[in-house]
Design a protein that fits this description.
Elements (H helix, E strand, L loop, with lengths): L1 E5 L6 H4 L10 E7 L2 H7 L9 E5 L8 H13 L18 E5 L4 H13 L3 E5 L13 H11 L2 E4 L2 H9 L7 E3 L25 E6 L8 H14 L2 H5 E6 L5 H10 L6 E5 L6 H6 L3 E4 L13 H8 L4 E4 L4 H5 L4 E3 L4 H13 L1 H18 L2 H16 L1
Parallel strand pairs: 1-2, 1-4, 2-3, 4-5, 5-6, 6-7, 8-9, 8-11, 9-10, 11-12, 12-13
Helix pairs in contact: 4-5, 7-13, 11-14
Length: 387
């Protein structure tokens, strides 16, 4: 079996780990357009070194020279998003094509390959907001065309399933594939503290991009309030920030303005192999994602890894977070530092609460989101398509 993966900016070890365990043992080719986002993933390992790779291009990278210059200018000065050049001819000869999101250019090329070469096509949809990503001209029509033409629409959450029903996708064409994490790699344990952390510190961990939608601003506000409250515990609080990407200077400026330099450590990106110990070093993990009319947390990869490591978690009620965390985390109001502060104060002051939440989190992940369940569901999907 030859499998073509068209994942856009989602090539990273977390998304790819389940493909190593497929029953079919396929030859997998990653079709990739290099972008700035991919450069950030490379800092921690993009996860594609074991796969075959095929380069595809944005219209700012290849094609007519005059058009390329114009598109580059428009991207820099007119806020235009680059478009992927059609590449359906490269997909000829594959047994299955698996693409990501209905509105993407790579899904458009996948649909054309499905029509021309009669190759089964699955599209994974992470988005969970109905009628989202339709403001750019042509995207609404593209979403409908891809949804009507694909063989299966794959969802990782029930919220995405509901969204698709609002957009007219029949339930019998939707396949649920539970997300998964390697519960042996991400498991409870003790790790020596690095990055200047001492054993006496109470470590709060944030993992993610520095973009505002990940909510780190609200976490910093909550941290300032905790420290202002005083007490011995407040003096020992350290926020360990594991992340990269655009926005670091903005976050550093906010840390300085709040006078939190002595309480914050930014590690930059860490390789995926180092992440289990990053979770083991912390006392509590926080996912403070915001909610807006254009984006809500679609899943929360770092959340499920922290839960698998047996850590107590605090997360906001943004998007699908409550579906993933269930009762095994403290869920608070999004876009609100006060509720994050209260939850942090609760876990700091109650060791028994931390232990209970950590144990429940680990059990929930093993029961519902183990990587083996994910790989088996993917294998079943491909068997169904190949019929």
């Amino acid at each position: 079996m030859k499998l073509a993966l068209l994942m856009g900016n989602r090539y990273n070890p977390w998304h790819l780990q389940g493909f190593k365990r497929l029953r079919q043992r396929p030859t997998i080719t990653a079709f990739r357009a290099e972008s700035q986002i991919q450069d950030h993933f490379k800092e921690r390992g993009d996860g594609t070194e074991w796969m075959e790779r095929e380069r595809i291009y944005f219209d700012t990278q290849a094609g007519n020279a005059v058009a390329r210059a114009y598109y580059t200018f428009a991207e820099r000065y007119r806020n235009r998003s680059p478009r992927v050049l059609p590449f359906q001819e490269l997909l000829k000869g594959y047994n299955v094509i698996h693409s990501w999101e209905l509105f993407t250019d790579w899904s458009a090329s996948a649909l054309e390959a499905r029509k021309q070469y009669n190759i089964p096509l699955a599209i994974t949809v992470w988005d969970l907001l109905p009628f989202n990503m339709e403001r750019e001209p042509g995207r609404r029509e593209l979403k409908k065309r891809v949804a009507d033409g694909t063989d299966r629409v794959v969802v990782y959450t029930e919220r995405s399933r509901t969204m698709l029903s609002f957009e007219g996708v029949a339930q019998d064409r939707i396949a649920y594939v539970p997300p998964g994490v390697d519960t042996e790699m991400f498991s409870p344990g003790v790790a020596p503290r690095e990055f200047g952390l001492s054993d006496d510190d109470f470590v709060v961990l944030f993992v993610g991009w520095f973009v505002p939608r990940k909510g780190i601003d609200f976490l910093l506000f909550a941290l300032r309030k905790l420290i202002d409250e005083g007490g011995g515990a407040a003096k020992r609080i350290k926020l360990l920030i594991v992340g990269s990407g655009a926005g670091r200077e903005r976050v550093e400026a906010l840390i300085a303005r709040l006078d939190l330099q002595a309480h914050c450590i930014i590690t930059g990106a860490l390789t995926y192999e180092r992440m289990p110990n990053a979770f083991r070093m912390c006392d509590v993990f926080v996912l403070p994602s915001v909610a807006s009319d254009e984006w809500q947390e679609q899943f929360g990869m770092s959340l499920i890894e922290a839960m698998a490591t047996g850590k107590p978690c605090i997360a906001t009620l943004s998007g699908a977070i409550d579906e993933i965390a269930g009762d095994a985390a403290l869920l608070v109001q999004p876009n609100d530092f006060t509720t994050i502060y209260r939850a942090l104060r609760r876990v700091i002051n109650h060791a028994d609460e931390r232990a209970r939440l950590g144990a429940e989190a680990r059990a929930r992940v093993r029961r519902n989101f183990d990587l083996t369940l994910h790989a088996n569901a993917l294998s079943d999907l491909y068997d169904d398509l190949l019929k």
